[in-house]
Specification:
By secondary structure, the chain is an alpha/beta fold. It contains 5 helices and 12 strands. Strand 11 and strand 12 form a beta hairpin. It starts with a helix and ends with a strand.
């Protein structure tokens, strides 16, 4: 069931124009920087967007400008670490062509973790890309997790498995819940 949902939402996202993604991304960015979650976070673990994900470039640059410590995913075998990014220009291509950093400085419990995904539900469950990297990270970490999603990608209910970790919050263009 999850694989079918994953395929459906990947196909749906492919149909959305880049301009529309940028509109969603801008509204989500504006909503994010107004939240206490963002304002009170000294350390932020954030994915580096690719393809038609919610664009995080502006978020990363703003967090660095606000003197927050920014961490990005670094894939090691079957797990993911949050490694420090000193400046946006330091991003390099990593495993699965995901942008990362060369830094070996990592954090286990960032104040705020921004999580990508394909779809979410009212119970704050999500479907990602199927690797389980975020679930494994969130299971071990004492962090506040916040999923960034486009509102139209909400599902009524997502089937969950034992290894799935629900998010603490969801942020869409409409706001935080």
């Amino acid at each position: 069931m999850k694989n079918e949902m994953r395929r459906f939402f990947l196909n749906l996202r492919r149909e959305i124009g880049k301009e529309r993604i940028e509109e969603y991304s801008e509204k989500i960015y504006q909503n994010l920087i107004k939240t206490d979650l963002y304002k009170n976070a000294n350390t932020i673990f954030v994915y580096v967007s690719m393809d038609k994900e919610i664009n995080t470039e502006k978020i990363i640059k703003k967090a660095l400008e606000d003197k927050k410590e920014v961490y990005v995913p670094f894939i090691v075998e079957k797990s993911m670490k949050a490694n420090k990014l000193e400046k946006y220009e330091d991003l390099v291509e990593g495993k699965f062509k995901i942008k990362t950093t060369r830094s070996n400085i990592s954090i286990e419990n960032p104040d705020l973790t921004l999580v990508p995904g394909l779809t979410f539900d009212k119970n704050k469950n999500r479907i990602g890309y199927g690797g389980g990297y975020y679930d494994k990270f969130l299971e071990k970490s004492k962090t506040t997790s916040l999923g960034l999603f486009m509102g139209p990608f909400e599902s009524i209910e997502i089937p969950i498995e034992e290894c799935d970790i629900a998010l603490d919050f969801i942020l869409t263009e409409e706001g935080l819940f």
